[in-house]
Amino acid sequence: MIERAPRPELEYLSENNEDVENIEIGVLLEAVFQRYGFDFRHYAYASLKRRIRHCVHTEKLRSVSALQEKLLYQPAAMERFLLVLSINVTALFRDAGFYRAFREKIVPRLRTYPFIRIWHAGCSSGEEVYSLAILLQEEGLYERVRLYATDMNEVILARARDGIYPLDRMKTYGQNYLRAGGKRTLSDYYTTQYGRAMFDSSLKKNIVWSQHNLVTDGSFNEFHVILCRNVLIYFDQVLQERVHQLLYESLINFGMLGLGQMESVRFSPFEACYQTWDSTEKWYSKVC
Amino acid sequence: MVQQSLLTASRFIGIGASLGGTAALQVLLPTLPPELPAAVALVFHRARGPETTLVDFLRKYCRLPIEETQDKTPIRPGRLYFAPADYHLLVEGDHFALSTEEPVSFARPSIDVLFESAAETYGANAAGVILSGAGHDGAAGIAAIKRHGGLALVQLPASAESSHMPDAAIATGMVDKVLPVDEIVAFLAKWQPK
Residue range A42-70: average pLDDT? Predict the structure, then answer.
C-alpha cells in the first residue's frame, strides 16, 4: 500500500481552471494517440483523470500541458505513463471462486474438444495466466491447449513471460490456489531462488505471449474460452461496446467468456447473445 | 432517452465510514427517507470477504433500495449504492465506474476517490458525510466537495467510536457543519444546493 501522494490538483488547480484541465487532457490523449498509437480517448474519464494527475505529480510537472510536451519528446516518459495507465493489479488465482467455477463448470465442456484455444486478454504480469495453466495441467487438458496471453504493454508482458514473482506473495497465492480447488500445493509449480519464485517451463510451453491492444487491434482467432477481467471497467460505454463486439466475434459458438467480478454483459448490446453460466463468478456462454 | 435523464439523480450524497462506522450507520441509515431525491453512495472500509454480511446489515437498517454497484451501474435517486470490497467507486457522468488501482489513503475502496469524482460531476449538488473511522481517508474528498460548492458534513468527533477520520476532515477547514449522527439526515433534508 502506498501513502497518499500529496495532491497535485490542490497545488495547481483552482476550481475554474478544471475546465482548462479537461481541455488539456483531451489534447494530451490526442497527442499520445498520434505519436504512439495508444488510444486512451475512450477510457473511463474519472479514473483516467486521476492517473493523469498522478503522472503530472510523479513527473514533477505543473500541468497536463507540460506532461504532454514531455510525452511527445521523451519516449521513456511515455513508457512510464503507460505503466501508470495500465492498471496492473493482479494475483495468482485472484478471485478463487472464478477459477473454481472454471474447474467445475467449464472444464467438463472443454473435455469435448480435441484442441482448445484460450485467450487471456489484458493478462498484465501473467499471474492469472499461470493460474489457468496450472489448473489445466491438473485437469489433464494442458497438452490440448494453446493459451494466448496478450497485453497492450510490452514491459508488463516481458514480466509475464519471465514468470518470476516475489516469494513473499506465494503464501497468499497458495491459499488462493487451494480455495480455487487446487489439487496439490502451489510450491510444486515453482522453484525458488534469491527470494523469488519462478514458474516451471512446463507451464509455459503452450502459452503464446503477444502484444495486443483491445482498443486498436482486431480479432486474431476464434477461441473456446476468453478471459477479460477488470479491463472493461477502464473503458467508457462507447469503447466497451466496441470491445464487447471484438470479444463476441472472437468466440466460437458456445465459447465461454469470463469477466471480472464486478463486470457483466448486462449493460452491453450483446447481453442477449450470452447465456449466464455462473452469475456470481461472471462466466458467460455465447449462444447465438 | 428523455425518460432516462429524468431518472438520473440530480443530487448526490456520499457517505464515508470506517472503524466504528457500524454504530454510526445504525443511527444514520434508518433516518434516510425512502422518497429521497438524491442518490446515496456508501464507502465502508472493510476486509475482503463475502458481501452478504454488509448487504444484510444495510437491508436491516435502510429503507432505501440497496444496490451493489457493478461497473456502469446508472445513478438513480432514492437508492443506496455501496462500493464493492477491493474496488474504488467513482462517479462518471450519469453512472458509476469501478477501478482496481492502488489503495488511496491506505484504502480501497477509498472515500477520497468517490467524493472527488462526485464533486467534479455534481458540483454544488453533491454532499459528503464523514462518519467514524481510523486514518484520514475522506479528508481530501470532503474538501473537494466543499471546493466545488457542495455540502460537507462531519460526525461530531466526540460521538464517534473512532474520531480520527472526522478529525482529519475537520482539520482541512473545508467543512460546513459538525453534527451528532442523528442530526445529519435532518440537516441534509433542509439542504438547498446553491
Answer: 96
